[in-house]
Amino acid sequence: MRPDTPAENVDHTAEAARLERTAGLYPEDAEALLLQAAAHLELAGDRPAATTLYDRLLSSSQGPENLESPHLIRALKASNLWEYGHEAEARAIIDGIRAAAPRDPAPWVIVAESLESHDELEAAQKTFTEGVTLLLADAAETPHSAHPLLFGRHRVRRMLGAAHDEWDALADTLHSSSVSLDELHDPKRVWSLGSDNPAELQAEISRLRAELGAYREELSRPFPVAVLHWPTGELAELVGAYPTLADEYPSHEEHLATIEASLRELAASGTANLGIVTGTVPSYEAFAASEGTSPADTDLLPQYATTLAARGRAVGWPPERGAACWCGSGAAYAGCHGVEAGA
Question: What's the number of CA atoms in the CB half-sphere (13 Å) around residue 161?
């Protein structure tokens, strides 16, 4: 669940500095970029500097209300603080996150895993369970982002020797590796690592390879194939400033219909991991300047969309069941652009 956990051969300190500089150039992406920088600093062993970045994001000048993921930032800060001796402060932050009951799985996973890593297994199980119950009790489907909650809960309960319940059964169903969760989370595995029996060692190697493969697959999930969306006001400003783009965008209604049609066509062709990025005129003009070309160049539009997606600005498509439509109308997707063609 770490944001963009880097490879081992990276100069983490230098990469953190680069990301901080980039955050200065792209203030709208500062949150995601500084979280990545903090992750690099933690990997470099400079945990106090990472805490400084978390505090910078949460400072009154930034304003937590203006952050996309304030609970995630607090969770990462708590986990980091505990790792270099600030247990009391970390526990206080964790208690605050649990009381706030965020609707995002990531903060729950971070704080529960922090408790688990410090042998607070009962507290970790309780935290995982609180998150699972809050986010999934009334959910018609289990979003991918909630899988780590279920898998982490399964792992901790296995270590505690607890009998399987309905949430553990759901975790087993969602787990796709050839090695079962019960095997991966078996507490006796630690003993097999010290075995003199070649068969036991080979079995453990197979389990570890399966676990590592699943972990690498999760980390390597590419940024989405994204389609560019302009809100009503932004599109009007864009076409007003660059009239040649009117051929590309005859009307806002047509623009929205084209987005949905393009995404459906991509999905029908087998393209996975689709998303939508929302453009703004100032950001687009800055991008054009960085590319040394005019914003009126239509060839720049897909490049801009790809760059926004690579910077973590994409929202997955289609929206989850019951979610609002991506167009910003406020209506549910199923009753807006999610209506099947011809319905």
Answer: 1
- Give the sign of the dihedral formed by CA 196, CA 206, CA 188, CA 91: positive
214 & 243 share domain: no
Domain around 257:
225-335
70 with 133, same domain: the answer is: yes
Say yes or no: 166 and 294 in one domain.
no
pLDDT tens profile 57-107:
998 555 556 788 899 999 999 999 999 999 999 999 999 999 999 999 999
d(CA 24, CA 34): 10
The DSSP result for 288-308, as a single string, is HHHHTS-TT-TTHHHHHHHHH
Q: How far apart are the first and last CA of the chain?
A: 40
Please tell me whether residues 83 and 171 are part of one structural domain: yes
Sheet with 315-317: strands ordered across: 225-229, 274-278, 315-317
Q: Both 289 and 306 in a single domain?
A: yes
CA separation for the pair 327, 172 (Å, rounded): 36
Put simply, whether the predicted model's pTM sits higher than 0.85 gets the answer no
In angstroms and rounded to an integer, the radius of gyration of the C-alpha atoms of the chain is 23
Considering the domain architecture, whether residues 124 and 22 belong to the same structural domain is answered as: yes
What is the per-residue pLDDT for 313? 82
Query: How high is the mean pLDDT of the chain?
Result: 85
**Is 233 part of a structural domain of the chain?**
yes
Q: Write out pLDDT tens, residues 182-214.
A: 877 777 664 555 556 677 666 666 666 666 665
